[in-house]
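tool_call predict_complex ligand=flavin-adenine dinucleotide
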Amino acid sequence: MTATQDTGTREVGTARRRKEDAHLITGQTTWTDNIQLAGTVHAALLRSPMAHARIRVDVSAARNEPGVVAAYSGADLADELAGLPSAWQVTPDWVAPEHKPLATDEVRYAGDAVAVVVADTRAHAVDALDAIEVDYEPLPVVLDMERAMADDSPLVHSDAGTNVCFRYSDTFGDVAGAFADAPLHITRRYVQQRLVPCAMEPRSVVVAPVPAAGEYTVWSSTQIPHFVRLFLALLTGVSESRIRVIAPDVGGGFGSKLDIYAEELLTFTLARKLGRPVKWTETRSEAFQATIHGRDQIQDLDLACDADGRIRGLRVNLLADMGAYLQLLTPAIPLLGRAMFPGIYKMDAYEFGCVGVFTDKTPTDAYRGAGRPEATFAIERLLDELAAELHVDPLEIRRRNWIRHEEFPYDQIAGLTYDSGNYEAATARATELFDYAGLRAEQARRREAHDPVQLGIGVSTYTEMCGLAPSRWLGDRGYAGGGWEAASVRLLPTGKVEAVVGTSPHGQGHVTTFSQIVADTLGVPFDDVEVVHGDTAAAPAGLDTYGSRSLAVGGVAVWRAAQRVRDKAKTLAAHLLEVSEDDLDFDGGSFAVRGTPGATKTIQEVAFAAFAAHSIPEGFEPTLSADFVLEPDDFSFPHGTHLCAVDVDTETGRVTIRRYVAVDDVGKVVNPLIVEGQVHGGLAQGIAQALHEIAVYDEDGNLTTGTMVDYTPPSAADLPSFTTDRTETPSTTNPLGVKGVGEAGTIASTPAVVNAVVDALRPYGVTDVPMPCTPERVWRAIHEAQGGTS
Amino acid sequence: MIPVGFEYSRPSTVEEAVAALAADPDAKVLAGGQSLLPVLRLRLAAPTTLVDLRDVESLHGVRVAGDDLVIGAMTTHDEILHDARVAEHAPLIAAATATVGDRQVRHLGTFGGSLSHADPAGDLPAVACALDATMVAVGPNGRREIPAADFFVDYLTTALAPDEILVEVRVPDTAGWGHRYEKFNRMAQAWSIVGVAALVRRVDGGVTDTRVALTNMGRRPVRATAVERALTGTAGDAGAVTAAAGHADEGAEPPSDVNGAADYRAHLSRVLTRRALTVAVGA
Ligand SMILES: Cc1cc2nc3c(=O)[nH]c(=O)nc-3n(C[C@H](O)[C@H](O)[C@H](O)COP(=O)(O)OP(=O)(O)OC[C@H]3O[C@@H](n4cnc5c(N)ncnc54)[C@H](O)[C@@H]3O)c2cc1C
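tool_result ok
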């Protein structure tokens, strides 16, 4: 039974407009901060301006300020507030320091919260923060990872005795053999700069208690309502069934809302203590400091090759900045990239090492791609460098090394099995759309003419690992939870369908995509399907949305549950039509007795009959509903070829993207419009890392890029028009044949753009430009390569 | 963030506005709010009264008076962009204004607010300097005129007294001059990393007047007098332009920040000056 037959072709594959958009576009949204409950009080946090200091906090004066209901220091609440969880123990001997929601005696990054005020209005709460007295006794600050590893470094957590969180290493194949007398080495250090996720909607939490019943309703701008419920239960001792967590409309996350945050636990605790609804919403300034950051790795890389450019082996040594504390998944993020450094290439040996390091900075955690963009950047940059070394076209060097389409499924060097792919096809399509030959000819002409504006062409042939994740795989790697996903499908008496899902969308369009899958499976109209999500009361089981898992894991669960409903409907239809199930055909939403025209029951008729239950077969459970909890078999591996052409003004250093072609193979596509949207958003974020964004700290540990003006995320006006297309190689690890697309654009685009910038400047002797390739950095790279000092 | 609480006053005449300022030494003028509100929201300033000028009719609009173009302080960037008199008498202002922020900012932000804010990264102060504009201020002691060269005193600081209001800007006619505002920024819709305002007048081919002022090359706009001297009197050919532009950063003290270190800004000023002059001598 293949998915294609089963889901038909009516809805799946159609570029349906998103059901979600009407209310989003017209502003009829329920963001968490829009929730207004009678009697709500508002919390505001005082945050440390120092990166590392011993603190003494006196909140008593704040209690006398207008409108103030309560004020607490971290010490005041020390016994009531548990430490925040880190759910992924990457090594048995990791260092996981206590992480209190409010600092009690020491702050460890600028933005660490030290006290909270609760007042009748938000303005009163903010005003009263000024009355809090904090004595900061400065402690030495360490910001640089290599400095932090030195014996004489100041310690972020003095009682830990070290700034090293963990050391991890792995080898595959005969590394020594592969590296011994390799004729060619490409040895590089690349820096993945620290990034700030900048979701459009800031974080926000509302907690409404029912004191007499000991029940709590929590609204949070989160990707993971189920985890929030689980951890609030674990951390407060309140039973899960008394905590309902709702993720209403959520305005973006990109990993930054895949966390259990101090403010969630704190707001819950305040509501419990005060017996009334409490709301907290972060300001954009707080979002920059107190929401997790992404990336921040130093990569030392060594690629050993034969003289003709065939890869023998790869060595990777990472330093990964944890920031000051471990958030939910912090130490695992660099390790999620562990198996992806080999990319789409065959090699004989691979060695991976990673050291996680504490510094006095905002904690890092998952940010769009989470470990995999970093890995892909490294290998794709190395391949371009290898091509340059050998004076071979970068596409040709890839052809010599990539897995050929007939070799799938392919067991790659780091132990993963790539399910399917066709790198040749995607590359052929991309080079055609790009006019690769034409642009190369133009590049040659402009080089010849010493044009002050040089053309550069960058290649990225990426793959990524989607569909987090087989539960056993997670368990083997120290993760506390699983990777399954749950769905319930109910055909209601009116013939409408309710699909209840455990994923929790925050911009991805699950309502539309899942409606399409259900519509085809049950033969009902697209508009008749409602998708319910993001509320633990309505959807008690689920593992939420991250890691490009929602379709490949959650969508398959929806499909399976819908199939169960259809099978049940068939049983009842056969009973009603007084035939055997084998005599029934199901098409277009009707069960028809084969060879007897007119003997039909629509699935809606069957639904009502199942509800009324006046005539049901022996053992048949009334109503048409079914659940399915799907444990994924394996990951799926989308891939693609991205080509980028840039104009680089060598006088000013300005980079302008002239053409960007993305040909992605994300397996079978349910909704091409949504896939396109995901690709566009991903490209914007990947290009942002390549050209624009960086979190900069001054030497005291203050975030100097703490506003939108200084951090410079791109707007539409900063981005080119994208040319996108797809090839379609179905996944073999799930019955829908789907892969993930949420992270693909981000993963692929960063190296494509940087490769293009470096390619433009090769005639000047430039071999790298550190990210982001701002005009100043590009100019400096040219200047330095030309022997100038800067 | 939420600003510290303040009183709000909304006068309808300049006299009332001046009186409102005089009544509270910690009062501040509110024009389009595009620079002031972020400052208040970040709690970097906490004026106790805001004197909103939007209802002061006489501060709005553009007129021609004798040889001068007169621009009311409350005229928005967008109004300037669509004003035929500005396009004719001082096209450099329109050219620079077109690069300011985005549509929303240009609809709210004002010419007078931009000049009074005196942000070295703002585009219009250098333009006012290049044009040798005159600022007209009104305070408790009446009206006075301040040449642009004396108006910009320091970083975010003008010659205006705390109880003075900038009411209008008088701009000498530069119809027929070649002009160019060459702006360099990292992101679309952002402030200048470096900007160059250039005006060139040619008579029978020869350059008779050159005015060049630089944005964000110091704590206030910088007149590139060495460039002006070097180009004036030449034939305005490419060689002369390139040679003159090489003096762009003479006497400038460019800042270093996340957008660029001082040496990069100095380099940019020379490149951008060459580009600006190349256009300005063009006609
Ligand atoms: C997103 C964004 C992008 C921007 N990009 C640019 C850009 O690219 N280039 C650029 O040049 N600018 C830019 N700006 C700033 C914009 O030009 C503002 O309009 C300008 O800085 C201030 O004008 P305003 O009318 O808003 O003044 P306000 O913000 O109201 O006031 C600014 C200051 O001037 C004082 N003031 C205002 N009017 C008077 C007066 N008549 N007399 C005395 N004092 C007065 C106020 O008290 C205050 O101190 C940008 C702003 C934003 C928000």
